[in-house]
Amino acid sequence: MDTPEPVIEVRRSARRRRTVQARREGERTIVMIPQAMSEEEAERTVRELVAKLDARVARRRGPQGDVELERRAVELADRYLDGSVRPFSVRWVSNQNKRWGSCSTADRRIRLSDRLRQMPGYVVDYVLLHELAHLLHADHGPAFRELVNRYEKKERAEGYLEAVEQLQR
Question: Which residue of 6, 10, 46, 89 is 20 to 30 Å from 150, comparing CA positions?
């Protein structure tokens, strides 16, 4: 299956003198450049802006595939849990509509809702760390909370998820 070519729309503006800008509108990338920019400079500028935008989006979204997700889980376990736990598997699932993630302490399998894929990376990291902490402490007691509280963006991520849940009601 071939992936479709990205749609890049270049908009030239007589009002722009030096500034350039790129943004996403759905599946389309809009690049705004000055009207007077040469074709050669425009091509170079568009390539650079699209590459920067792609990199920024990738950083914000976090891991997209199961392999990336598993790799990220190991990184988080090493960083926040002193490498004291290793999941057997970590994967995205599409059948979790009420919870963000789940884990089985018996077989060390972690599943994250694919609804998280479009959320910022720090939110995915929080949910992943939450589930990793459950591999060490099945409940939400003080020992569990102490582990999860190590994540510096915990409150921000919880606020984000709470806002999403409010919007879905």
Answer: 89
Q: Count the domains in the chain.
A: 2
Residue that has been written with the tokens 């400079």 in this structure: 41
- What's the CA gap between 126 and 157, in Å, rounded? 6
| Helix, strand or coil, per DSSP, at residue 114 | helix
Rg (CA), the chain: 21
What are the tens digits of pLDDT across the range 73-89?
999 999 999 999 999 99
How far is C-alpha 3 from the geometric centre of its chain's CA atoms?
Answer: 21
93: in domain: yes
The domain in which residue 47 lies consists of 7-61
pTM: 0.65
Q: Kindly tell me if the per-residue pLDDT of 167 is higher than 90.
A: no
The answer to whether position 15 is within a domain reads yes
Residues 96 and 19 reside in one and the same domain: no
Q: Where on the phi/psi map is residue 19: left (φ > 0), alpha (ψ -120 to 50), or beta?
A: beta
* pLDDT tens sequence across 36-70: 999 999 999 998 888 888 777 655 555 666 888 99
